Amino acid sequence: MGIFSFFKTGKEDQSASIAKDRLQVLIAHERTGRSGPDYLPMLKQDILDVIKKYVAVGDDALSVQLESQDNCDVLELNITLPEDAESDEESAESARRRAMERRQAANAT
Amino acid sequence: MTKTIVVTSGKGGVGKTTTSASIATGLAKRGFKTVVIDFDVGLRNLDLIMGCERRVVYDLVNLVNQEASLHQTLIKDKRIENLYILPASQTRDKDALTIEGVARVIHKLKKSDFDYIICDSPAGIEKGAKMALYFADEAIVTTNPEVSSVRDSDRILGILQSESKRSKMNEEPVKEHLLITRYNPARVKDGQMLSVDDIVDLLAIPLLGIIPESPSVLDCSNAGKPVILDEESEAGQAYSDAIDRLLGEAKPHRFMDAPKKGLLARLFG
Ligand SMILES: Nc1ncnc2c1ncn2[C@@H]1O[C@H](COP(=O)(O)OP(=O)(O)OP(=O)(O)O)[C@@H](O)[C@H]1O
Ligand SMILES: [Mg+2]
Hints:
A: 56% helix, elongated, B: alpha/beta, eight-stranded mixed sheet, binds magnesium ion
């Protein structure tokens, strides 16, 4: 601390409180992931497989959080679609076609 | 009854080995027969910190593989009665340790009337760290006042609660202790570093001690001497307090506050 910082209140640089706020959110988030029911990973995989039927996404495109609020549990799904999901006509087209075929196949039975 | 204590953190370089060396030395100094085991397979370091690197003949992997006896493998400390070091192997094979093999070693140590087994965990949350904490009765979660260290400590707490032997056998849970190391009160005062209260709030486990950032830690590791033996140093005294608390004594925490600076130091410091 030099002659200039002496005249400052010394409170401008409160990066520690930002750190604490961020950690509070993050740790709460990660703890719910840990304490979730054991079917959660399988459920997540199944949902991901369904999304992949329609859109070309990676394994990290889906995040699943189970949060307890008062007396009910809320399952929160976050799906990140790729930037060019719409513009990539060909893959979107083929995904639609495959979905259509599946629906027809399902109707046929 | 032997107590097994793991010194763990998730994040690397936070002070696990420094802590293991000082906790083991402190317990032995108080008369408990103590062994400190280096679980960092491939990255042996505890021997250097304890100053016994030239006396290593056999190591933990030799012992697990029954290539050497316990008596041949344990290194008896030259300064402190009742203190033994069990060095890690320098093998590159990370799979050299198995739960069954380590269980045999722990069993032998218990039969040899050790009061304390201190396990110095490697960094990470992979197999090596899980092996080090598996047999623990208590855990010293070593944490620096810094975001990634606090987060990793919380993850390690999750692993202690779900993957330790005690949790798998539905026994009483592993007793958790928070040890904050490399604490810099001046930076906390300036709002640049998470405070003790912040960290205790976030991790919500009992506080075993606060080890201040101290140049004597480096001096001592240069000399191969656990810092707890430097009774003049703040870090040494803080480790000594932590031992008292580990043994059940209620001691107020020290070294939390920045030294008061005079006007001149504040102007030109
Ligand atoms: N209280 C302290 N004050 C100053 N330096 C410290 C303190 N505690 C540890 N250090 C330094 O931090 C570095 C890492 O310490 P140490 O090897 O004990 O960490 P570790 O958690 O065992 O690391 P690893 O994860 O690699 O095994 C060393 O250089 C050590 O001297
Ligand atoms: Mg280490």
